[in-house]
Design a protein that fits this description.
alpha+beta, Immunoglobulin-like, six-stranded mixed beta sheet, 2 domains, 8 helices, eight-stranded mixed beta sheet, Purple Acid Phosphatase, chain A, domain 2
Length: 444
């Protein structure tokens, strides 16, 4: 009997070994509990509406109680009119905005409309129509009090993985969408900007999208387009003037106890630059009793243990890190590296309980694939890292505590692979009352 059992065990072991020799990815699956996803195809969308109907509709926050509605029409005579109200099909209010268009070589954009509506009530669903025709859209305004939840996705693109990410993000409720650069991956192919706008419309028309630029938005060309960002600045107008900025490439806004700073990795940032002076002034103006949480987003990460894009954010870190540290900025989110990585709180390359917590989340669904190779041995500053497509969620519960979670994309669902509780630096006396801010690592 014993000999028979041993024979059975031997047969099972031999069968497993044979399977792993034929299909080595099965062994990888056992080791990592997940097989890395390959790149998926580019998704392009076509306009199915009339020339006067709105397309590529998206909304963004403006001030504490207003929303900017942005859309494009092929018809050059359509008004920049938004009708809106709290009942479907009944529009008790209306507002008229501005419009523009741009040329890029032989390409001419449609009429790009921007209209600010409000004042609006918090936690209220509004129905709206753009240009006097076409489909009705709706959105719900953010709440006036905690809790608030942000969905955060970098390097989005327009692939089948992008579609998967957006569906996963949309599967549960959130209030505001934050994107730290690399939107459409058009890379000067202007029709891809239109395709991207149509792809994200079902999501960006019902939740405020607040974005900053990445390297794929630059689109410079010697002599003809030396300054870049022509499509980005025309299509994705953010509330930079409201925050005292002179550039759409960097700005700030406030929502429910949070001061959000969107920085520009691809415009001047040294201590003599306009961005540096603006950031200094912006941080000085923050009232932490009103907005206890301060969060920054940028594209090229200041801390990165992936082999991809090593050192590309270093000069910006050296220029601006001390400003964020002195102001007790809580979190810094970056993209650019096509993987997920969460660090501890850091200042000047050392663990520091009063520094920001750094997160790289450049894994939204880009067409270039994942950055698979991390440096070894791992840095003690890096607490979790994984090259998978996914998205993140930051739920701020109150003045003192928030929860961060990262969702890995699987084929049909998303899986919470990483999460951590975070205490605001404003609630830490060691950070707000000690000018020297002791350099010591604390468990988050």
């Amino acid at each position: 009997m014993m000999e028979k059992c041993n024979n059975n065990k031997s047969f099972i072991m031999f069968s497993l070994l044979f399977c792993f020799l034929l299909f080595p990815h099965l062994l990888l699956s056992l080791e990592n509990d997940y097989v890395r996803a390959p790149v998926r195809q580019l998704v392009t969308t076509q306009n199915q509406r009339s020339d006067s109907d709105p397309q590529q509709v998206h909304i963004s926050l403006v001030g504490k109680d207003k929303i900017r509605v942005s859309w494009i029409t092929e018809d050059k005579h359509t008004q920049s009119l938004v009708e809106y109200g709290t009942n479907s099909g009944k529009y008790s209010s209306k507002a008229t905005g501005t419009h523009t268009s741009y040329q890029y070589f032989l390409y001419t954009s449609g009429r790009i409309h921007n209209t600010v509506i409000g004042p609006l009530e918090p936690s209220t669903t509004y129905f709206y129509r753009c240009g006097g025709s076409g489909p009705e859209f709706s959105f719900k305004t953010p709440p006036s009090k905690f809790p608030i939840e942000f969905a955060i996705v970098g390097d989005l693109g327009q692939t089948e993985w992008t579609q998967s990410t957006l569906k996963h993000v949309d599967s549960t409720n959130y209030d505001v969408f934050l994107l730290p650069g690399d939107l459409s991956y058009a890379d000067s192919q202007q029709p891809l900007w239109d395709s991207f706008g149509r792809l994200v419309e079902p999501y960006a028309s019902k939740k405020p999208w607040m974005v900053t630029q990445g390297n794929h938005e630059i689109e410079t060309f010697p002599i003809i387009y030396p300054h870049g960002f022509k499509a980005y600045n025309n299509r994705w107008l953010m509330p930079f003037e409201e925050s005292g900025s002179t550039s759409n490439l960097y700005y700030s806004f406030e929502v429910v106890g949070s001061h959000i700073i969107m920085l520009g990795s691809y415009t001047d940032f040294d201590d003599k630059s306009e961005q540096y002076k603006w950031l200094q002034s912006d941080l000085d103006s923050v009232d932490r009793s009103r907005t206890p949480w301060v969060i920054a987003l940028l594209h090229a990460p200041w801390y990165n243990t992936n082999e991809a894009h090593q050192g590309e954010g270093e000069s910006m870190r050296q220029a601006m890190e001390k400003l964020l540290y002195d102001a007790n900025v809580d979190l810094v989110f970056a993209g650019h590296v096509h993987a997920y990585e969460r660090f501890t709180r850091i200042y000047d390359n050392e663990a520091n309980s009063c520094g920001p917590l750094y997160v790289t989340i450049g894994d939204g669904g880009n067409r270039e694939g994942l950055a698979l190779n991390f440096k070894n041995p791992p840095s003690p500053l890096s607490l979790y890292r994984e090259p998978s497509f996914g998205h993140g969620r930051l739920q701020i519960l109150n003045e003192t505590h928030a929860h961060w979670s990262w969702y890995r994309n699987n084929d049909t669902n998303s899986f919470v692979a990483d999460g951590v509780w975070i205490q605001s630096l404003f609630s830490s006396k060691a950070c707000t009352q000690n000018p020297e801010k002791q350099t010591s690592h604390e468990e988050l």
